[in-house]
Amino acid sequence: MTAKPKFAMYWAASCGGCEIAVLNIHEKILDVDANFEVVFWPVAMDAKYKDVEAMEDGSILLTLWNGGIRNDENEHLAHLLRRKSKLLVAFGSCACEGCIPGLANFSPVQDIVTTAFHTLSTDNPDSIYPQPVYAAPEGELYIPTLAPRLRTLDQVVDVDYYMPGCPPESHQIAAVIDLVIQVLQGKAELPPKGTVIGVGNSTVCDECTRKRNVRNITAFKRIQDIAPVDPEICILEQGVPCNGSATRSGCNARCPNVGAQCIGCYGPAEGVIDYGARLISAFASVIDAKEPEQIDRILDGIPDPAGQFYRFNLAGSLLRAGAPAWKKNGQAKQSSGQGK
Question: Which alpha helices (H) appear in the chain, and where do they start and end?
């Protein structure tokens, strides 16, 4: 009996929603079990790093990697699974472009740690901070060390395919699984290396049924400050920052279709070099002003520019990080052994 090809999935710096999205394909998960031997999926089975290290290089056919690279453990596993896998897929927004964890790239590591362990919402009267190494009676204990900034998977290792989304839509996951199974059965061929899979080939605006080119705006507002939102007209043209014009299609415009602005979780559309720059251009195009000073004033009214333009894409953008995160002093302080 021919052995089934091996499948792996790993969760790095992310929320875990991608793991749930895979389970949300419902009975299609049985096709995964029928066609693959799951050899490494820590969230779903008992598996050890040493088990993966003992495998032959290239013995895993397909690995879905979700999450960015934030610490040395993430980086070690990225290199390990790249070596053991024939196909490595950056699965979900965190792996493809950094996503919400990537917004921490605006700050140095020490500020991030301080916020987590020494703010009003944290009960830490003795100011105890995590240490990379701790001498316990049983021996030295180690925890992963944070890197100066979060990186996308392809900034660390070579990636075969990209599947964006926060998380990827379940129907898109199911379609990709069907394709891989057809490839295994000799009924289809894999797309060229580097292809973005499980997505549309246009923008969210093209999937959206709202009317465009109806009106221009004189100010940007939060959606809760507009009552009611017109159900027929483009949300951006109502003054609410909507990212659909720069965002890759594939989600069926779920958010705009229920009256909420697109926040960009499917990442840059094909041909977009820098997501934030494309959005600024799109936003400027609906402004009812001609003078540069007027345009700047209206754009300055966007409530959260950094979060708006780089909510999902900072780590994977041309910018990648704010100046403080590029400085190594924050990492040096965090590694110096603060705490008790």
Answer: 17-23, 29-35, 49-53, 72-84, 93-97, 109-117, 170-184, 204-207, 254-257, 275-285, 292-299, 305-310, 323-326, 329-334
Most confident option among 22-26, 312-316, 320-324: 312-316
Q: Are 146 and 332 in contact (CB under 8 A)?
A: no
Q: What are the contacts of 254-257 at 24+ separation with CB within 8 A? A: 256/204, 256/208, 256/210, 257/208, 257/209
| Residues 265-288: tens digit of each pLDDT | 999 999 999 999 999 999 988 999
For residue 215, name the pLDDT band (cuts at 50, 70, 90). confident
Alpha-carbon span 112 to 83, nearest angstrom: 32
For residues 9 and 156, give the distance between their C-alpha atoms in angstroms, rounded to a whole number: 17
Structure tokens at 83: 């070596």
Please tell me the distance from the alpha carbon of residue 239 to that of residue 333, in angstroms, as a whole number. Answer: 43
Q: What's the pLDDT tens digit per position in 284-300?
A: 889 998 888 888 889 88
Q: How far apart are CA 238 and CA 50, in angstroms?
A: 55
Mapping DSSP to helix (H, G, I), strand (E, B) and coil, where does residue 87 land?
strand
Q: What pLDDT is stored for residue 256 in this prediction?
A: 95
Q: Name the percent of the chain lying above pLDDT 70.
A: 96
CA distance 173 to 92: 10
Angle between helices 292-299 and 275-285 (to 10 degrees): 120
Decide: 93 and 20 in contact? Cβ < 8 Å.
Answer: no
- Alpha carbons 309 and 283: distance in angstroms, whole number: 11
- 3 state SS of 223: helix
Phi, psi of 76 (to 5 degrees): -60, -45
Positive or negative CA dihedral for 70, 75, 81, 82? positive
pTM above 0.85, yes or no: yes
